[in-house]
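Case study 2.
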Amino acid sequence: MVRVVLADDEPVIRAGVRMILSADPAIEVVDEASDGRSLVESVRRHRPDVALADIRMPDLDGLAAITEIHRVAPGTAVLIMTTFGKDAYIARALGEGAAGFLLKTGDPREFLLAVRAAAEGAAYLSPRVASRVIGEIAGGRLARAAAARTRVEALTRREREVLGLVGAGLSNAEIARRLHLAEGSVKTYVSTILTRLDVRNRVQAAIIAHEAGLADPDPSPPPR
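Prediction:
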């Protein structure tokens, strides 16, 4: 039996969610709360498997309640539900350690799936929320990687080799030994690379190397 504490300041919402959860005989709502403080106290008292909380409640919102719940009942997973899915709220909920984020306007079956998943130690995001989170993460990374690859296309093959080793954290002397070049030649390459990439220092160049996939994160020691 999955034991749930349900919190929302709207009695009608609580009644609706309770009815949805009652469709699964393996889920039991052991208590309800109308504000954040009452939710934390209920969780402390009942030690449920899952706390299902509205994001906006009086006397302690659902986001702030996550930290308190983790303090008083570390074994309780917290699911956040809301009628809106602002990115800032999603990011904060996940950052605070929420096990999932649900939209009240979503498919009622999502509540059952989310509660089961959270009780088993997994995470659950409403599909509409998940697509936005994945899009934000993947889109940002892919965009940076694409931009970095475009920038390094202006470099020669040798300059890309040098840039990759700069990204791996090697010094000019180490790069010279690795590529069998004079150290002065490496300095010249690095200077040219900084100019062509329009960056100020090696750190910025190294970031571009990583984003473009040129840097070896664990290079073998250069020959001596």
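Residues 127-152 form the longest helix (26 residues).
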